[in-house]
């Protein structure tokens, strides 16, 4: 279950994190940014309204809203090197073939483009649970696909708000997964990676 994507509106703490990430990467009006696993499209709306970027979203389930499309992150419906940014908020952890998703992100980003990931991770290190990433493994995969890690920050304070919303909106259906999160001391992180510019040039 992709709990963040299942929520109709983005919890305030997560929206604050989106705002921080956008400020750090410096996306400019007119640049093309995709939100993978966009859910109801709250982040896409924010990007278009507040940042002026040409944002659109893709989700497995048919989303309803402006600039939202049905599709999968393993095969994005855009040309190679055509995007300036990619957001994956609470979505990469719900995807089966994460390595393929990261490879696809590297394909569609232009040189100098930014990949922003905000998601759950196991603070117990290599512990494994459904819907929780192992950061060491994730970082290795990202670097292997040609990205440079520019930022990694822990933002586990947003989890309390997220867990409360999940319980309230999904009742007992979500309790098993929340227990798994607790078993690995789940935390929440923000990661920014960039594709290097070719020969010192690029956007």
What key phrases describe this protein's structure?
single chain; 203 residues; alpha/beta; Rossmann fold; 7-stranded mixed sheet; 7 helices; 25% strand
Question: Could you characterize what this model shows?
Answer:
The structure is a single chain. This protein has helices spanning about 5, 10-25, 40-50, 100-110, 135-145, 160-170, 175-185, and strands at about 30-35, 55-60, 70, 85-90, 110-120, 150-155, 185-195. The chain has about 200 residues and is α/β, with parallel strands linked by helices. The protein has one domain (about 5-120, about 130-195): Rossmann fold, CATH 3.40.50. The chain has a 7-stranded mixed beta sheet, sandwiched between helices. The chain is globular and about 45 Å long.
Quick rundown:
This protein is an alpha/beta fold and about 200 residues long.
Overall pLDDT score: 84
Major sheet: 7 strands, mixed
What is the 3D form? globular
Q: Describe the oligomeric state of these chains in a short phrase.
A: single chain
């Amino acid at each position: 279950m992709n709990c963040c994507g299942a929520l109709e509106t983005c919890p305030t703490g997560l929206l604050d994190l989106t705002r921080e990430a956008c400020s750090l990467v410096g996306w400019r009006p007119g640049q093309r940014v995709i939100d993978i696993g966009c859910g109801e499209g709250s982040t896409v709306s924010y990007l278009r309204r507040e940042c002026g970027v040409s944002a659109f979203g893709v989700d497995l389930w048919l989303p309803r809203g402006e600039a939202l499309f049905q599709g999968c992150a393993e095969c994005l419906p855009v040309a190679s090197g055509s995007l300036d940014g990619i957001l994956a908020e609470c979505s990469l952890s719900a995807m089966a073939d994460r390595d393929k998703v990261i490879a696809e992100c590297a394909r569609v980003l232009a040189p100098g483009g930014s990949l922003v990931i905000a998601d759950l991770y196991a603070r117990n290190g290599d512990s494994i649970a459904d819907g929780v990433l192992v950061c060491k493994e994730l970082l290795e995969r990202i670097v292997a696909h040609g990205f440079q890690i520019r930022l990694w920050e822990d933002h586990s304070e947003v989890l309390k708000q997220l867990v409360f919303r999940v319980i309230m909106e999904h009742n007992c259906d979500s309790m098993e997964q929340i227990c798994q999160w607790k078993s690995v001391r789940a935390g929440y992180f923000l990661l920014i990676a960039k594709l290097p510019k070719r020969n010192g040039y690029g956007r």
